[in-house]
């Protein structure tokens, strides 16, 4: 069942990604033009062009992303003691790392900065990384776990403090495979992941009976006063793609019983 869920999620996202959807619709409109069906082409190309222009001109994606990022905030006061620091995979660029044989970080690289800060604050706490490969085509590699070990030791965390889980392919499997590795099943663990991903991660952790204290990093939205017309399509898609994916993920995980709440709250 987990295998089917993984494959379905990857195939589904190929058609639901906002960037891909725009290209598919433009392609469909061009096909109608090629077959001289001008009226159908207009019905597709005009709204698609308008939506693409709005996304390019103004960071409307912030309005989709902001509720996710503001759901959980960094603790005002850190607890005196924790039983470990859990960092979710996703900050690595696995394909480029394999291509160039170097440890490359992606947009979620802030997860490592947050983890390094917490590891210094709690010098005796184990650092637990969980993440394999979320790509269908990169399942026969060492995955993110090998990269994580290299990156975490490079930023100064001793190898003996590390617990690495490298089989998981999605957030549900992150916690499913990590739970047996935890030093204390009922312990308290700081959870480091991207702010937009934190609601779903917390919901799954709770469903698995893992006590986590959210420590969000990797924010993607702008402050209200900095949100302006800037005609930067690439930058706007960097927020729109993960935000749209996360709302879909929250819905699917809730409907399939992987979380008990659609939009988990503090």
TrEMBL record:
Membrane-crossing segments per the record: 12-35, 44-61
Record keywords, A-Z: Membrane, Transmembrane, Transmembrane helix
A matching Pfam family: DUF218
Keyword Transmembrane included in the entry's annotation: yes
The organism's place on the tree of life at top rank: Bacteria
InterPro entries (alphabetical): Cell_Envelope_Assoc, DUF218, Rossmann-like_a/b/a_fold
Limits of the DUF218 domain: 83-249
Protein name: YdcF family protein
Annotated source species: Thiomicrorhabdus lithotrophica
């Amino acid at each position: 069942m987990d295998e089917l869920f993984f494959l379905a999620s990857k195939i589904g996202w190929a058609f639901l990604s906002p960037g891909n959807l725009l290209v598919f619709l433009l392609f469909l409109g061009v096909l109608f033009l090629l077959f001289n069906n001008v009226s159908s082409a207009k019905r597709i190309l005009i709204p698609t062009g308008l939506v693409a222009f709005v996304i390019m001109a103004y960071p409307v994606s912030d309005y989709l992303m902001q509720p996710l990022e503001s759901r959980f905030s960094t603790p005002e006061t850190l607890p005196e003691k924790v039983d470990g620091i859990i960092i979710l995979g996703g900050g690595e660029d696995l394909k480029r790392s394999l291509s160039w044989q170097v440890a490359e970080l992606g947009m979620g690289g802030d997860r490592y900065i947050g983890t390094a800060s917490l590891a210094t604050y709690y010098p005796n706490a184990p650092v637990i990384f969980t993440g394999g490969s979320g790509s269908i085509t990169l399942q026969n590699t060492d995955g993110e776990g090998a990269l994580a070990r290299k990156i975490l030791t490079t930023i100064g965390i001793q190898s003996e403090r590390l617990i690495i889980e490298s089989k998981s392919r999605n957030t549900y499997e992150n916690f499913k495979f990590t739970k047996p590795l935890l030093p204390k099943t009922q312990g308290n663990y700081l959870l480091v992941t991207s702010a937009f991903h934190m609601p779903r991660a917390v919901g799954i952790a709770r469903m698995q009976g893992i006590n986590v204290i959210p420590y969000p990093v990797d924010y993607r939205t702008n402050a209200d006063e900095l949100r302006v017309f800037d005609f930067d399509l690439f930058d706007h898609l960097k927020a729109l793609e993960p935000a749209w994916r996360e709302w879909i993920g929250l819905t699917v995980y809730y409907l399939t019983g992987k979380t008990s709440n659609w939009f988990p709250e503090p």
